[in-house]
Design goal:
Shape: elongated
CATH topology of the largest domain: Immunoglobulin-like
Number of strands: 21
Order of helices and strands: HEEEEEEEEEEHEHEEEEEHEHEEEE
Strand order of the largest sheet: 1-9-8-3-4-5
Radius of gyration: 24 Å
Bound molecules: 2-acetamido-2-deoxy-beta-D-glucopyranose
Number of helices: 5
CATH architecture of the largest domain: Sandwich
């Protein structure tokens, strides 16, 4: 080992230490008295449709107190996104999450939040606040929805401003991905050379195998175009989806687009699948099919779990796209959702 390497090693050890120390110091909080400190980076995760408990437990109960659960993301300037408030007797729900939120109440010191039937947008930071008029305390927990990020473009490259990209993800049974979700997808193997909107209005693309056509030979990583003009600038987008309650199935045949729609309705009692549903079926139902099929947006794709030579040729598992063929072409089957 040379000195430079040793130096780097010791600097990174030092940095790691100072980060974890400052995490405690910088918070500026007094030592918690009532609430139990969660483990650092407390994170709870479940797929869409699942139930979760975000833990918040008291050591001891002050004589008078309120517990307030707040969702910290997305940020609304100046407006707290309250989920529920309880004073130990009465409980009040707020906002869109309210009806699916409850206190677990597993024992007298339990202030843990339960959220049922999780939705894609429920992910983010949550805060449990104890308010007793003397020394308020709070703990923060991250809820992460298990799911999958996929790149999405309309006919041709870079056709969507921010609002159009947001709508496009919604049409594909998904929401716009966050930077964190894109980052996790990159660590899981996502390499994509077209830049796409994220839900904070920034534009990025994830590269694992640097190449000249994709930003040159910079190190692998998430390439950033930074925040872009939400109305004037046009890009693709990254969407995020998760498990579905229904299933996707393939109908073989040589359909044009209209015939494929009809086949799903008549033969399957369903409708043409959305792109997010096909990704979810690939990830959660191991759907593996070596035939291109129409989807609801007019694209033709097929999902491969076990890569093989004659199925698109790529060495990685994934959902392959054949683009947006002419809707009158009678060449493909249909992916239906029911
Ligand atoms: C979630 O909780 C509800 C009751 O609140 C229950 O009906 C449902 O089966 C639960 N779902 C899962 C996936 O455990």
């Amino acid at each position: 080992m040379d000195w430079a390497a040793i130096l780097v090693l010791s600097i990174s050890c030092f940095t790691a230490n100072s980060v974890s120390l400052s995490h405690i110091d910088d918070s500026g909080e007094k030592k918690l008295h009532y609430l139990v400190e969660p483990p650092v980076y407390a994170e709870v995760s479940a797929p869409r449709g699942g139930n979760v408990t975000l833990p918040c437990v008291m050591h001891t109960k002050p004589p008078h107190y309120r517990i307030k659960w707040v969702k910290l993301e997305p940020h609304h300037q100046g407006v707290e996104n309250i989920v529920l408030i309880t004073n130990g007797h009465a409980l009040k729900h707020y906002g869109a999450l309210g009806p699916r939120a409850s206190l677990r109440d597993a024992h007298p010191l339990d202030a843990s939040l339960r959220i049922s039937n999780l939705e894609l947008g429920d992910g983010g930071e949550y805060r449990c606040e104890l308010i007793n008029g003397i020394e308020d305390e709070k703990v923060e927990i991250t809820l992460s929805i298990d799911g999958i990020v996929f790149p999405y473009g309309r006919h041709g490259r870079y056709k969507m401003n921010f609002a159009q990209a947001k709508a496009a993800c919604a049409e594909q049974d998904a929401i716009m991905a966050t930077y964190k979700q894109l980052f996790k997808a990159w660590t899981d193997g996502l390499d994509w050379c077209n830049a796409g909107w994220l839900n904070d209005g920034t534009v990025h693309y994830p590269i694992l195998h640097p190449r000249a056509a994709c930003g040159g030979d910079l190190l692998p990583g998430i390439r950033s175009y930074g925040p872009r003009h939400r109305i004037k600038d046009h890009f693709d987008t990254f969407c995020f989806t998760s498990a579905t309650s229904g299933t996707v199935f393939y109908l073989g045949g040589s359909f044009n687009f209209a015939e494929a729609e009809q086949a799903c309705r008549v033969d399957g009692g369903g409708e043409l699948a959305r792109v997010g549903q096909l990704y979810a079926a690939w990830r959660y139902q191991d759907l593996d099919q070596c035939n291109g099929g129409w989807l609801q947006d007019g694209s033709v794709r097929f999902p491969i779990v076990t890569p093989r030579k004659h199925c698109g040729g790529l060495p990685e598992a994934g959902v392959r796209s054949l683009g947006f063929p002419k809707k009158t072409h009678r060449l493909y089957g249909a992916y239906c959702y029911r």
